[in-house]
Design brief:
GO biological process, one term: asparagine metabolic process
Strand content: 15-25%
Largest sheet: 5 strands, mixed
CATH architecture of the largest domain: 3-Layer(aba) Sandwich
Protein name: L-asparaginase, type II
GO molecular function: asparaginase activity
CATH topology of the largest domain: Rossmann fold
Keywords: Hydrolase
Number of domains: 2
Organism: Sutterella wadsworthensis 2_1_59BFAA
Distance between the termini: 17 Å
Radius of gyration: 19 Å
Length: 217
C-alpha cells in the first residue's frame, strides 16, 4: 500500500500532486517495495507509514520521519531503498478489524503548565477505554494529573505515555509510573500511539500485553 497526497492544489503554480501520483504508481509496481509495510511517497521521498509525520503547515517537504529517517528516495524515475522497517507491520500483524464497526474510544491528553486532572477525569467519565498522555520531555506527567491516570489504570483503562516534543523515545522508567501500570509509547507520537492502543484494545486490556505490542509495532 502506498499513501500519497499533495500540499499544493492542482490550480497552483508548480503543483506537486501529479508527480507524487506518478511516483506512487511506480513505487507500488516495484517488486523491491514488497514487504516494507505501508509506504508514503511524497516530494521524492519514500517513508514508512509508521514513522512519517507532517512537520509543516504548507511546505511541500512537510512529511518527515524524525530520528528514524526515510526508507529511501525517488530520483530519475527510479526507487532507491536505504533500509527496511524493523517493527511488525501489515501482513505480520496480529490485529483483524474486518468485523468491527468501530475501534475502542481512546483520548489524547496534552500536558501543559498548571495541568490538573480535569481532562483525565472527563475522559474516564466519557467512557474512554484508553488514554494517551502527551507529556513534556520524556513522557513526564504533571503531579496533579498523575493520580487521575493511576486511578484510570485501576479501573481497567490503559494509559500510554507519549511525548508532545515530536521526536525521541519515550522510556521514562520512573518507579511510580511503572508501579501505576503506565505503558511506554516508545517512538510513536501521540496520534499514532492512539491508533496502536485502539488496535491493542480490540485484543486485550492487559497492560503487560499492550506493552508488548508497543515494543513490537
Amino acid at each position: 500500500m502506498v499513501v500519497i497526497g499533495a500540499m499544493r492544489p492542482a490550480t497552483a503554480i508548480s503543483a506537486d500532486g501529479p508527480m507524487n501520483l506518478l511516483n506512487a504508481v511506480k513505487l507500488a509496481a516495484d517488486s523491491k517495495a514488497q514487504g516494507r509495510g505501508v509506504l508514503v511517497a511524497l516530494n521524492d521521498q519514500i517513508s514508512s507509514g509508521r514513522d512519517v509525520t507532517k512537520s509543516n503547515t504548507t511546505n511541500v517537504a512537510t512529511f518527515k520521519s524524525p530520528d528514524l529517517g526515510y526508507l529511501g528516495y525517488i530520483a530519475g524515475g527510479k526507487n532507491y531503498f536505504l533500509r527496511n522497517p524493523a517493527m511488525r507491520h501489515t501482513h505480520q500483524s496480529e490485529f483483524d478489524v474486518s468485523k468491527l464497526d468501530k475501534l475502542p474510544r481512546v483520548d489524547i491528553l496534552y500536558t501543559h503548565a498548571s495541568d490538573d486532572r480535569v481532562l483525565a477525569d472527563a475522559a474516564i467519565a466519557a467512557g474512554a477505554k484508553g488514554i494517551v498522555h502527551a507529556g513534556s520531555g520524556n513522557g513526564s506527567v504533571h503531579g496533579q494529573t498523575e493520580p487521575a491516570l493511576a486511578e484510570a489504570v485501576q479501573k481497567g483503562i490503559a494509559v500510554v505515555l507519549s511525548s508532545r516534543t515530536g521526536s525521541g523515545v519515550v522510556c521514562p522508567n520512573v518507579e511510580q509510573y511503572n508501579k501505576a501500570g503506565f505503558i511506554e509509547g516508545r517512538t510513536l507520537n501521540p496520534q499514532k500511539a492512539r491508533l496502536l492502543l485502539q488496535l491493542a484494545l480490540t485484543k486485550t486490556n492487559d497492560p503487560k500485553e499492550i506493552a508488548r505490542m508497543f515494543e513490537e509495532y
